[in-house]
Amino acid sequence: MKKILYSLLMFASVTIFAQKNPNVKFAICNDAVGTVNLFNAKKVMVQSTTPYKAAVLPANLKKYSYLAQNGLTEVKYKKDVGTLDWMTLSGLNTQYQLPENTPVIIEGYEFTDTSTKIYADIINKTEVKDYNGKKTLFITTFEKY
User: Fold this and answer.
1) Residues 57 and 72: beta-carbon distance below 8 Å
2) What are the extents of the domains in the chain?
């Protein structure tokens, strides 16, 4: 009986940890992942934003379809404004002494390709937790800037 309860508890905790946050809307700019909130806060840098529904993503955003549950926005910077700092998920894993190829969970979305770049400014909180029997990095983003 204890084994059954333990198994149920483990399953419930994994399910809770991996819940996708419906309030987060991702945005892609220069092949790096950010959030719509991040770019709304940096409007002086933004030339244009184009929101897409999951079913109608253009070819260049198809590889991010797993993030498009709430839609996905493509952002373009103005010319000559520079860029925000970004990092790869493999580099982030290394900072937390995790294998580079370990998937990263951002707001419940599993990023299996650790060569994916994210904007550092979206990171509010990072935690290493057990996920499917492996130590995994979980990232929470800012709801508002």
Assistant:
1) yes
2) 2-141
